[in-house]
Write a structure and sequence with these properties.
Blueprint lengths: L1 E7 L5 H15 L6 E7 L11 H9 L14 H6 L2 E4 L2 H10 L7 E3 L8 H4 L2 H23 L2
Parallel strand pairs: 1-2, 1-3, 3-4
Helix pairs in contact: 1-6
The chain binds 4-nitrophenyl phosphate (4NP).
Amino acid sequence: MIKICFICLGNICRSPMAEFMMKNTLSKMGLENEYRITSRGTSLEEYGHDLYPPAKEKLEEMHIPYEKHFANKVSMQDYLENDLFLCMDENNIQSMKRLFPKDSGKIVKFLERDVADPWYTGDFSRTYQDLEEGIQNWIDNLQTKRNK
Ligand code: 4NP
């Protein structure tokens, strides 16, 4: 099983959206038992909060199922339990490397560019598109590696 944790700053917009979108895509592909998908933030800013309402609205519009969420900061236990930390932007990468300075290569950027941050842009559609592109790329690449 491949264990993937999506990372953003607050864990109420980008990373939980990515978590629910990837779970949905994997389940449509019949791959839900091959992966374990979670999400965390690099800060405690939004600790305990549910998905930000406009993020829920976007998921509903796109017919992506989601569950009650509890925003949390990434811990050492999370670090040890996961294979990959897919980070939404360059700031997340820097924060993760400060938190886990001995990283063995698990901390990587989700897309080459930064995912559009809806906290500042207010544009959840653009974020959704970025997430969709990255998720498809990651599943294709991970499945190709596993099938080799
Ligand atoms: P997220 O969005 O990192 O995608 O969950 C944000 C949530 C909260 C803040 C910034 C971004 N904040 O500054 O509190």
